[in-house]
Give the backbone structure.
Amino acid sequence: MAFAIIRTAKLKTAGNLGGLNNHLERTMEVPNADQDLTYLNKRTIGSGDLAKDVANRIQAAGIEKPRKNAVLAIEHLMTASPEAFRFEKKAKPSGTGYTVGGPKEDIDRWKRFEEGCYQWLAKRYGKDNLVNFTVHVDEQTPHIHAVVVPVDEKGKLNCRHYLGGREKLRDLQNSFAQQHAAIGLERGIQGSKAHHTTVKQFYGHAKGFEQAPSLTILLDAPVASIQAPETNLFGQMKLDPQAYAQGQEKRLRAELAAHHRQTLLKAQEKAQELHRAAQASQLLKLENERLKGQLKGIQRLVEQLNHSNRTGKALVEAIANGQIQPQELVKALQQVPQTEREKNIHAAMKRVGCQVKEPEVKKEIQQQPAIKRKGPRL
């Protein structure tokens, strides 16, 4: 069973638009993306400058100045659960480079999914409001980013008209699933206690739980047995049949209740295990980012020290060959502060978190000029 997935995000500032544009065009580092497959991404609507495309649509709608804190655009992330598109990276037949392949039915389903997403967006928001449609296949699950400017029928920026309230969000999920029902995609459980996940949260989960523990909970099947009734010498039941049945029912209920409590306990332990794993994954991520920053700083420091070492050797060779006179070198060095190089090295070490003890500055005591006394000494 495969599910249709759609997530939305509100874009309110030029910074939001610029950041998304960098992600769409892969002008920034995307940890989940495979650079060998980035060339397969495509943009069927838009110019590659998202902020400009949004501004042009707003201007074409006759909106001179959007109000403060207005939603300028809405991002849509559209995909399906992984079993819907079983794509995998494989080498090209030519032996140079890579491509994406999979079962024919999955490839056909993806093509129909692309067409269905465009039709759904055009019908729901209008073709003029759709300013970007980008397909990404260089990540683990292929997906589509679509950006819509929420101009309503009155020609105003009105995000609430499309996404305001639970009913409209529920209708968004229902209509999107209905659009793709023909290719075997279903809606998630309607009325469940699961909360809507934003685009940012969706990427956070995909990155943070790449090595999450198994969700499988091993449970023992309930065991319930019916005890044979006691009989007398003539084969007749010692107890009244009704009393016997009530006693057996009571005993079975107690056994099933005990099994139910054990099942809940195992489920709670598994939930705690997943929670601890999620926390550990987040801590490891933060520590990894910190160590990466320190490593880059140390590499810069080593480059500076190597450059200083090479410069010193070159000066020694130049003096030995007579290309530079020692007196000229001394004069040149006197024009440069002696501590300039030390300051650069110390600053580089501080950037990577190393503690550097600053040299003590000695204050020069100016001697007062001797006062000439007049007259003979006594």
Notes: The domain at 2-208 is CATH 3.30.930.30 (BirA Bifunctional Protein; domain 2). The radius of gyration is 36 Å. The chain has nine helices and eight strands. Residues 241-320 form the longest helix (80 residues).
